[in-house]
Each structure stands twice: as C-alpha cells, then as structure tokens.
Amino acid sequence: MVRPLVMRCGAFGDMVLVTTLIQQLHARFGAPVDVIASGGWARPLLAPRRGVGEIYTLRSRRKPFWLDREQQRLVQALQARGAGPAWYCDGGGHGRSLLRRAGITDDLVCDTRDLPWLPGEHFVERWLRMAALTPPALQPPPPPPPARAANAELDLSASEQLACEAWLARRGLAGRTLVGFQAGNKRTMRGFFRRRASNTKYWPESHWGEVLRGVRTALPSAALLLLGVREEYALNEDIKKAAGIDDLHNVADDLPIPVLLPLLGRCHSLVSVDTGPAHVAAALGCPTVTLFGVADPKRFRPGGVDTPVAVLTGSVHGKTNILGIAPATVLDAWWRLTSSRR
Length: 342
Description:
alpha/beta, Rossmann fold, 2 domains, 6-stranded parallel beta sheet, 12 helices
C-alpha cells in the first residue's frame, strides 16, 4: 500500500486549510496520510481527523542538523517508515533536506515551490491542485482525486463531542446559546506592549468592548465567550472590563483543542481576528466575522472560498491596517451574517 506523506510546518490556521490536501490524498490513494507538522497543537488538531496516519512533529527546521536531536529522530523515523511519495508544502524550503536525508529522493516529491500561484487563488484551491500532482517516480500515477468544493471541512470525533459536553456542564454553560470572540493571536503573546507595529492583528480592547455590548443587545440571553490560550487570558480580562456586561466568560484559562473544536462547532457565531479558531469555525460551518490585518484575504479567507464568513479589512493613512476597522462595521457584518440564526 502506497502511503503518502505531507510536510507542512505552518501555523494552526494553515494546518486547518491543509486538511483539504490530506483528505484528497487519502481519497486518492486509499491509505492514511502521514504528516510532518510543527507546534504542540498539531497532534490534537490532526490525529482525530479522517485520513490522517502517523504524525511527526518538528519544532525547528532552521537549526543545523547535527545539533538538533529532534531533526535526527525525525529522519530516523522516516527511514524506518520507508521511502514513498511526499508532498512538500512549505514555501520557504526549510526542512526540505530532511526528506533527502531520510531517503525520499527528489523524484518522489511534489514541491509547492514548483507550482505557480494563480491570480486570486485561495490556499485551499492551491492544496486541491497539489493533491492532483504525482511525483515523477510514482508510475503509473493513481487516479485523480474526486472533485470537491474549495472549502476546508473538519470532522469531529465522538470523544471530542463528549469532552465539550463535560466542559460546558462544568462551567454551567450546557444548553446555552454561545457566541465566541477571539481577540488574541500568536503576535499578542510575543511582546510586552500589545499595541506595537509588529502586532498587525491588534484591535483595541475598547473596540472589542463595543462589539460585545452590541451583540449582548441583539442576543440578551446568550453566553458570550472570550476564547484563547492561557497567555491571552489577561487580554481577555481587559476586554471584559471594557465591555462592562454580564454573562461574559473568559475561558482562555482552560480551553484545550479537543474542546475548542466542538465548542466552535456549537457556537451561534464567532467574531475573530485572522487566526486559527476563525479557520476552525468556518470549516465547521459556524458564521464567522474575521478582522484582517495585513494578510491577503483572497488567500487566507477562513475555511475556503465560499464558507459562511464575513471578511473585514481597514486602512489607516492609505495603508492596510486592522485599526481602520470600526466597531460599527463589525457589528453590521455580524448582524447581516447571522440574521437567519436570530
């Protein structure tokens, strides 16, 4: 049985989109797809999904090979696995040599850098095109993958659903209408000052407070959830103070990925900066308002090409800037996107 390998060491949201490539290769080859990824979130995000085989994690691809035991262990594991077709999906080329060290020769690899971008192409469309490529050494080529819409789709396991039910019950949120808010991102956690030039996804706490008050007015009985990881708890507390409303829950102190995914699937809607949870929510069909900084929404629109998402961009002094998005604009987009749910 030919077992495909995908290498993509991107961010959380990137990997949500790459699941389309994994699913297509699984359908094409009829075998689990092994994945090389980065981040502690990779295993809980990918392991329960259909079509995913062995998961190899890698924290750094830039360190010298002879100084990095993790890279050496990865190469040893790939050598034991055996050479086979691989789809290399990192645009920077970092880590490509690890495949060669493991005996996966260049003629067994489809490299994303050899695939020109199409005008206006979304990443999901690109991964679907990648899934149709065949490494030169793999002859005869397997049949092409089945056609599908250019959207990411996540399947949730029964254990994840049960974990979410238990989490909601523990917090007294079972049976409630839930609206999620994701204000933080990985840049938020990297520096002392949130409002700095490098944090291109920072949106002021006072703006979030205004949006929360507007959603509370529209949905007076809903529980509003401030999402995130532990490092974003303090940010959420400041937003909570700015909002000044009841039934607003900062859950960033205890939100593991096996709970986050089904929780987003149950949410009435989500308002988020352009980050991982927005991609998860969109892939699960949750109406999502997404605030973009400098990233290109045409490539990174959460979930894919036509998921239930409102994408917002702003400008300051003629330059793309998330600070140019007004709270009223966010509320108007949320209102239009969720009108059928109200």
